[in-house]
Specification:
Helix content: 40-55%
Structural class: mainly alpha
Pfam family, one: p450
GO molecular function, one term: monooxygenase activity
CATH architecture: Orthogonal Bundle
Cofactor: heme
Order of helices and strands: HHHHHHHHHEEEEHHEEEE
CATH superfamily: Cytochrome P450
Number of helices: 11
Distance between the termini: 27 Å
Number of strands: 8
Largest sheet: 2 strands, antiparallel
InterPro entries: CYP11_CYP27_families (IPR050479), Cyt_P450 (IPR001128), Cyt_P450_CS (IPR017972), Cyt_P450_E_grp-I (IPR002401), Cyt_P450_sf (IPR036396)
Shape: globular
Strand order of the largest sheet: 1-4
CATH class: Mainly Alpha
Oligomer: single chain
Organism: Phlebotomus papatasi
Radius of gyration: 21 Å
Number of domains: 1
């Protein structure tokens, strides 16, 4: 059993339901040939994207093997997305039920507003290609940090027991709003282990940064992995201290000297910023909070196999096999 693969398949299922209005069957094991092709296309994209987009663009002059596989994967994925979207729209058109606003799917909203299923396919592509590995690694890293800091896990569980009285209690919008410590745990994890180690931008105008004149068109890289793990901005940067993200009045963290301190708004940007900010940020945050809240409300989590180390591929990915021990809580 691969824990990380399970989380990845959970992400496939969630994104498929949201963007394609289709259950892909990844968690239940009911995976058909079409779903396998979608997963294979996404995997091929990740195996080739670094070589095609981050290395010398030889493919501009010679169609390399990686470039051919990259384009083939994107074409396959687009075709399969359109097939699923068309089937979903036919099914919706045949349903005479008048739905209330909250029950209208994202796919329906996009097609109704634009009249163009291809826009829905583009959104699905964005969510699948950048929302599966990233969300899965973020979940994994947060679970790992809480397993290595049992006192923080205990604080989180006490919070969850208040908002989720039973292990089977549903998670809704109001519940999510009352989980400040869980949000802080996620923020602190993404500070220490951002799923992408840097953001790149092409300057649209001349700029002066720290006294240096940088001309328009220059490609610049902001390494938030380095900045967010610097003691210039975060005291004890290599310690997992979620309390530093708690706002005054959210909960009692008076015993933490770093609680309530001002944090530079641009020093930790796991989702990017501005017009190029992650399009699926809100969906990813909700997915993280729901999965983690249900997991820790039901189980005590341990990891007894040493320290996790990470590598770039192209997300910031754990190198070791994940072997979490889950012990069901009594209450």
């Amino acid at each position: 059993f691969s824990y990380l693969n399970f989380v990845i398949f959970s992400s496939y299922t969630a994104i498929g339901q949201v963007s394609l209005d289709t259950r892909l069957g990844c968690v239940t094991g009911d995976v058909n040939t079409e779903t396998k092709r979608i997963i294979e296309a996404i995997n091929t994209f990740f195996w080739t994207v670094a070589e095609v987009e981050l290395r010398m663009p030889i493919w501009r002059f010679y169609r390399t093997k990686a470039y051919k596989r990259y384009i083939e994967a994107l074409d396959t994925f687009t075709e399969l997305c359109m097939d699923n979207i068309n089937r979903a729209m036919e099914k919706i058109a045949q349903d005479p039920t008048i739905k209330c606003e909250e029950n209208i799917s994202l796919l329906e909203r996009i097609v109704e507003k634009t009249g163009n299923p291809k826009i829905a396919a583009i959104l699905a592509m964005d969510l699948f290609l950048v929302g599966v590995d990233t969300t899965s690694v973020a979940v994994t890293s947060t679970i790992y940090q809480l397993s290595q800091n049992p006192e923080k896990q205990d604080i989180l569980v006490r919070e969850l027991e208040k908002v989720l009285p039973k292990k089977t209690s549903p998670v809704d919008i109001q519940t999510l709003e009352n989980m400040p410590y869980l949000r802080a745990c996620i923020k602190e994890t993404l500070r220490m282990y951002p799923v992408t180690i840097a953001n790149g931008r092409s300057l649209q105008s001349d700029a002066i940064i720290s006294g240096y004149h940088i001309p328009k068109g220059t490609h610049i890289i902001f390494s938030h992995l380095a900045a967010s793990n610097s003691d210039e901005y975060f005291p004890e940067p290599y310690r997992f201290i979620p309390e530093r993200w708690i706002k005054r009045g959210e909960m009692d963290v008076s015993d933490c000297p770093y609680a309530g301190q001002l944090i530079h708004p641009f020093v930790s940007l796991p989702f990017g910023y501005g017009r190029r900010m992650c399009i699926g940020r809100r969906f990813a945050e909700a997915e993280l909070q729901i999965l983690l809240s249900k997991l820790f409300r039901k189980y005590q989590v341990e990891y007894n196999y040493g320290k996790l180390t990470y590598k770039v591929m192209p997300t910031y990915y754990p190198e070791q096999e994940l072997k979490f021990k889950l012990t069901e809580r009594l209450n």
